[in-house]
Amino acid sequence: MSLNVPNAALVPPGVAPVAAPAPPAGAPRRDAPVQGPSFQEVLRSRTQEAQGVEFSRHALQRLERRGIELGEQTLARLSDGVERAAGKGSRESVVFVDGTAFVVSVRNRTVITAVDPEHMREHVFTNIDSAVIA
């Protein structure tokens, strides 16, 4: 091991030179690469999220009980509405598609509940920060 000592005469015999200070506890090591998902993996997961929405158990029960059928075109419009709400920074939104209202957690891309026009007469939507007509 070689040490870079500017003037060996200044170090008394029998005294060991001081080593470089240790990094603080919990600090990341500079020589170790940071582990995590690759850019490609993050991009792929974000793209998958953007392509569709999920339905909560409650929303699925409401769809079944109220006889609301969702075709591919309706799902595509719903997903587009959620994307538009996300683009504006919305967190909770009501998305209207052909008269049916979908209350959606925009961040989670999850439909919380669905209300058809027949059941919407006296319905009040609370805890939403946006509305989208898709």
Automatic annotation (TrEMBL):
<dbReference type="InterPro" id="IPR013367">
    <property type="entry name" value="Flagellar_put"/>
</dbReference>
<protein>
    <submittedName>
        <fullName>Flagellar operon protein</fullName>
    </submittedName>
</protein>
<dbReference type="Pfam" id="PF12611">
    <property type="entry name" value="Flagellar_put"/>
</dbReference>
<keyword id="KW-0966">Cell projection</keyword>
<keyword id="KW-0282">Flagellum</keyword>
<keyword id="KW-0969">Cilium</keyword>
<feature type="region of interest" description="Disordered">
    <location>
        <begin position="12"/>
        <end position="37"/>
    </location>
</feature>
